[in-house]
Amino acid sequence: MTRRLTDHRLVVASHNAGKVREIGELIAPYRIEAISAASLGLPEPEETEPTFAGNALIKAHAAANAARMPALADDSGLCVDALGGDPGVLSARWAGAEKDFNIAMEKVNRCLVEQGSRDRRAHFVCALAVAWPDGHSEIFEGKVEGILVWPPRGSRGFGYDPMFVADGYDITFGEMEPEKKHAISHRARAFKKLVEACLA
Hints:
Shape: globular
CATH architecture: Alpha-Beta Complex
Helix content: 25-40%
Number of domains: 1
CATH class: Alpha Beta
Strand content: 15-25%
Number of helices: 5
């Protein structure tokens, strides 16, 4: 049976400021305070799983155990059809040690150009894991389809947002108002499932 979230504080198991901000905005209406793992000085565990769900669970359990309170972890990334699903679970690593997503976006575009592919289809995937200190966990996944554009457009969002246009839209996630993105993004879709199961 799905466990409900009854605590008023939740650790967001991420050191990515943009991701923490976005999750905080999504969870704020439920009167839950989002506390970043970075603010608590929690270490970042090594992500060794080949799936988004597996890595989200690693991060959620590590944060819940260290903070002794429920933790929410997100593992998400960009999957490009013509690149066999890359960068996928390695999306953050393509940005290098400095987490420079301009470098990551350039790498994605360069790979497509080098292989001469006209296929610009891609999708974002998000796995949200909630873990409790006693070891219980829940997992929810969301996905949004779209195409990649070059050059990148917009300064909103984070990560690969400036090069991704969701199906049915003509602006990138980097150009989109946060409220609109929160309504349609992969993270929003995973979060909707989380709310229905654990908060509604």
